[in-house]
Amino acid sequence: MSDKLKEKIFNAQSEGDIASLYVLESEAHEKFDEDTLMAYYANILDLALERLTNALENLEQLDMTQVQDFATLRALYEYAIEHYSAGSVHDASALFEVLGGISNDEAFSEAMKVHRAACDAQIPFDDFIESYVDMNATQNGGKFYISYFTKGIGE
Fold this sequence. Notes:
155 residues, mainly alpha, 9 helices, 0% strand
């Protein structure tokens, strides 16, 4: 790994700058081995969990229009999706509930309700994607989260 990349990552980590760590993500993919890359993402998650804890303690919502809040929500959403895709529906459901409540973005919060309902209905992740998600609209929608659905849970 180049010293310049190392310095950028160190500075971003020191400042708790999740957004900058995401900007450096493609470089990290090119230069890191799998173990180092996993540690890189674990650090992003640790920073996001710290920001979440601070927001909860201060009774604040995360503002999707603010870069660091956006990056925090993205990291936590990816963490929730990891749980869901691994079959940990109870953990994923709880994470989706927290995400929906901590964000000030109504569309994001509504999408998290659908995610949570799928977990609560014990719908396997692959079935959720196949039967409920409009993947084309989601991919074209420019969001970091699954945001378009073909039907509601239970329909």
